[in-house]
Amino acid sequence: MYEDGIDGDSLKEVVAKGIKYIDIGAAVLPKPLFRPDVDEVDDDDLLENIPNEPADSVRDGIYRSSTSSIFTNTLDPLVASTSSREAGAPDEFDIAPKIPTRYARTLRHEFNAVVVEHHLKWAPLCVETNIAGPAQEPRRLGRYDFHHADAIVDWAIKHNMKVKGHVLVWHVTSPTEILEEMTPEQVREQLRRHIFTTMAHFRGRIKVWDVVNEALAPDGSLAENIFYRKLGPGYIEECFRWAHEADPDAMLLYNDNKVEGMNGPNKRKADAFFHLLAGLVKNGVPIHGCGIQAHFNAAGTGRNRPPTPRMVKNQIHRLGNLGLKVNISEMDVRVSQLPPNLRQIAQRQIYHDIVAAALTEPAFDGIWLWGFTDRHTWVTHFYYDDEPLIFDEEYGRKEAYYGLRDALSSIVPGEKFGAGVLLDTDEDEQGNCWGHQWIQEPVEDCLDASFSKPENDGVVGADRPDWELT
Ligand code: G3I
């Protein structure tokens, strides 16, 4: 059970003592932020203020159930969110708990920044206009409903926490069915309108944005998503230029996954990530940084194996040489496929070593977890039961928490910079490979820097999220 202030400094208290400012952020969901966990309150009068849980509404249609893939939930997120909202269905935003939830207390005590996990994306924000319109009329995008995202953003600002905007352009959470019906010029107009509308609404409150997310296919080619097909490969550059026009003061980022390590398990995609960014910088596109997501599976093999600290350090270094800032943007570490006795060792070492290595690079400016308690993680809804985060289901600090805190301590004056992690090699003095206590692949593979085999690189131009292909 989490209680403020026990057991040493919090993560943000450690970071505040560091030689440079680092974001220590977490992705936030509205329900646990504004509504106590079911076993959290035994105070009836508090409960009576909570409307009945809306039927497992089909809002935002993606990820609706643990078994479904986001590609089988064909329900258009726009229609779902409008219907449940306009139907007056109560939702997690319609109440203000009388006491801060455990989730809120832990979040504001441990982190100095938040990112909105879902409710700041295109589909949840923008609702269709003519749902009941004549069937033959083209479906159009209409008004924006910011009240969900505003509730989270304003909560964070009230608690002096930075907010990262995530994400303006991601084909997976765009009103794709409606965009498919449009001409390229109409899509271009809608995309530009979305960027300007969203950034203008939050201007002054959100100063750093993930502009484009996951535009690369597993093999490093550009994903042939709706924007690529309608606007061509130049859409990425266009989006950054529109974002800069919408808010010239904003820091603009490109975000992707399985790109974390140079010459590592995803060599081709990591190289493509670097070359994509190098090209944008060379063309004078207003891009200021990038996010490497770090959705790791400790039991992963082949392309799904975590990169070593050396690989991550080298990737951040070459991105920094482009003049870009780099953050770890969505870290979580799945362990449930490991033997139980290896799970905590593996998770602690990955959080510790990867972050300590990243912190040795001047370009590195933040570590963002994708959630922070195992009670609320996307992994359980999308993959299987797992414990990928640093607080357990009762908000207790896990071994991984202490590993991350020790890594963050490495930038505090007087502490050991790099935290003793292998940075120039992948094997220790005894010839043991990094992670040898828990890695599930033959250890010799670890020494082969380019052990991503072409056949493992996935489909050319695939627009399915890479992490879905694991
Ligand atoms: O808020 C509603 C809730 O009212 C309703 O009861 C519930 C059940 O229908 O759905 C809730 O919305 C869900 C939302 O997550 C919040 O839990 C949406 O249906 C669901 O589609 C949404 O999934 C998110 C997904 O992005 C799409 O936005 C995941 O939480 C989130 O972890 C995931 O995050 C992505 C990053 O943006 C990009 N990188 C990969 C990462 C993992 O997929």
UniProtKB/TrEMBL annotation:
Q: Which parts of the sequence belong to the GH10 domain? A: 96-407
Read off the Pfam families from this record: Glyco_hydro_10 (PF00331)
User: What reaction does this enzyme carry out catalytically?
Assistant: Endohydrolysis of (1->4)-beta-D-xylosidic linkages in xylans
Q: Does the keyword Transferase apply?
A: no
Offer one example of a GO biological process linked to this entry.
xylan catabolic process
Q: Known EC number(s)?
A: 3.2.1.8
Among InterPro entries, the record links this protein to: GH10, GH10_dom
| Alphabetized GO MF terms | endo-1,4-beta-xylanase activity
The EC category is: hydrolase
Instruction: List keywords of the entry alphabetically.
Output: Carbohydrate metabolism, Glycosidase, Hydrolase, Polysaccharide degradation, Signal, Xylan degradation
Enumerate the PROSITE patterns for this protein.
Answer: GH10_2
Q: Which family does it belong to?
A: Belongs to the glycosyl hydrolase 10 (cellulase F) family.
| Protein name, as recorded | endo-1,4-beta-xylanase
Taxonomic source organism: Nitzschia inconspicua
Question: Lineage of the native species?
Answer: Eukaryota, Sar, Stramenopiles, Ochrophyta, Bacillariophyta
